[in-house]
Automatic annotation (TrEMBL):
Transmembrane parts of this sequence: 12-33, 45-69, 81-100, 144-165, 171-191, 221-239, 259-278, 290-306, 312-330, 350-371, 377-397
Protein name, entry field: MFS transporter
Membrane topology (UniProt): Multi-pass membrane protein
Listed Pfam families: MFS_1
Subcellular location: Cell membrane
Keywords: Cell membrane, Membrane, Transmembrane, Transmembrane helix, Transport
CDD domains to which the protein is assigned, alphabetical: MFS_MdtH_MDR_like
InterPro entries the record matches: MFS, MFS_dom, MFS_trans_sf, MFS_Transporters
Domain of life where this protein originates: Bacteria
Ranges of residues in domain Major facilitator superfamily (MFS) profile: 15-401
Length: 432
């Protein structure tokens, strides 16, 4: 990447650095144990794949609706209260996961963790646009955030395996402590904002949630893109809980070592290839990058469908292929939404991405039932076909975007703009 881009990272605001570093530590401790949750529920309560899928799916689906709403709230009342609330909910959720000894306790804790993430993510992502005016620097910061998330994902399972805590429930307390540290860091970062520049509460935007929804509904390209991304997340998510259930019920050899190795391969692939791939594809439009990533993802689904259960290294090879697809797809999805979002509706647009959870969270349920009744090969051949559907949706979105009359994202009744406020004051207002 251009050296000037990298140097620009040194000048990022403290709040952005808190999000970046918090993403690294939060995701690292999260991945020490979370991927093994399906194994824990199977071993602790003898639950079948369908029930485990339902537990993981239903709570996340409820949180998806909340995330959509909280993104709009962050546009109206500022990012601060939502970021602090979401972080603290995560503290409670992971402490509960560390001590839960009943199915009901796990359900409550899993639901809270999904809620915390849905409350935290939209304002955190919107803040990049609020505080970084240069488009190229903002896109690099979004890419760098995804890089740090996966660096944490790589180190988490590795550290967990080394110290023998990967499949231990009490490890969730470490994740809770990491979110508690993030909560304190946010308090410090918000306190460091220049005195006198913080506006009165409730003036970051005066649109109602209903009017914001009407604005989003008129942005046809955005709606098609969100639909395509929901399906893409549904496809990708089967590499997580569904695959683990498939390997578990079919007695794959060395299941804990295999899962840890797959998580490590996934994260290391992104850590080492994300920026080289970005450099190679820098002259391509974002949509074209995403379509290429979907092609790689489709090949990975075919590999999963036909890989023999006993072939340890085959699973790692398929994981590598899908990880390459992830390194292309997910950062560019964030860049894509950032480009679509109007400045005074960033929280709402990123809040709408919480609907991705319908794809992500329905995967364990659909995957568990499919594996239980028809087997893993049927599941992954179906996801291969869905990859083709997503590609067609992206082609359709490109054609809609090229139409002479584009959907206007801002309506008169939807948003009260910042008017004649200085640009820097408007940015601080949307954050606080």
């Amino acid at each position: 990447m251009d050296r000037q881009w990298w140097q620009s990272l040194y000048g990022l605001p403290p709040l952005i650095w808190v999000v970046l570093i918090g993403s690294f530590f939060g995701r690292g401790t999260y991945f020490m144990v979370w991927p093994f949750l399906a194994v824990m529920l199977h071993q602790k309560f003898a639950l079948g794949p369908g029930v485990i899928g339902a537990v993981l799916s239903i709570s996340a689906m409820c949180a998806a609706v909340l995330g959509f709403y909280t993104g709009s709230l962050s546009d109206r009342f500022g990012r601060k209260i939502l970021l602090l609330a979401g972080t603290f909910i995560n503290v409670i959720a992971f402490f509960l996961l560390a001590v839960a000894d009943s199915i009901e306790g796990f359900v409550v804790a899993i639901t809270l963790s999904a809620v915390g993430r849905s409350v935290w993510e939209p304002p955190a992502m919107a803040m990049f646009g609020d505080l970084i005016s240069d488009t190229r620097v903002r896109e690099l910061a979004l890419q760098f955030r995804y890089f740090l998330i996966n660096a944490g994902s790589a180190l988490g399972p590795m550290i967990g395996v080394w110290v023998g805590i990967s499949a231990q429930q009490t490890t969730f307390s470490i994740t809770a402590l990491s979110y508690l540290g993030l909560f304190v860091a946010f308090l410090w970062a918000f306190a460091s904002i220049r005195p006198g520049s913080e506006p009165p509460k409730g003036t970051a935007g005066s649109s109602s949630f209903a009017s914001t929804v009407r604005v989003l509904a008129r942005d046809k390209v955005f709606l098609v893109t969100i639909s395509a991304n929901i399906l893409a997340l549904f496809i990708y998510a089967h590499m997580d809980s569904s695959l683990i259930q498939y390997l578990t019920v079919n007695d794959a050899p060395g299941i804990v070592s295999l899962i840890s190795s797959m998580i490590l391969i996934n994260a290391l692939t992104i850590v080492f290839l994300q920026f080289p791939l970005l450099r190679l594809m820098r002259d391509l439009e974002v949509n074209h990058r995403i379509i290429f990533g979907l092609m790689v993802l489709a090949l990975g689904q075919v590999w999963f469908a036909f890989n023999p259960i006993q072939w340890f290294y085959g699973w790692l090879g398929a994981t590598f292929l899908i990880s390459v697809a992830e390194a292309i797809l997910f950062p560019n999805m964030s860049v894509q939404i950032d480009r679509m979002a109007p400045a005074n509706l960033r929280g709402s647009y990123f809040g709408a991405t919480s609907l991705y959870a319908f794809g992500w969270s329905s995967a364990p349920l659909v995957g568990g039932i499919t594996i239980q009744y028809w087997g893993g090969q049927v599941l992954y051949l179906a996801t291969f076909m869905l990859c083709l559907v997503v590609m067609l949706l992206y082609v359709f979105a490109s054609k809609v975007a090229a139409l002479p009359v584009a959907a206007a994202p801002i309506a008169d009744d939807a948003v009260t703009s910042h008017g004649d406020e200085p640009e820097e004051e408007a940015r601080v207002q949307s954050v606080c």
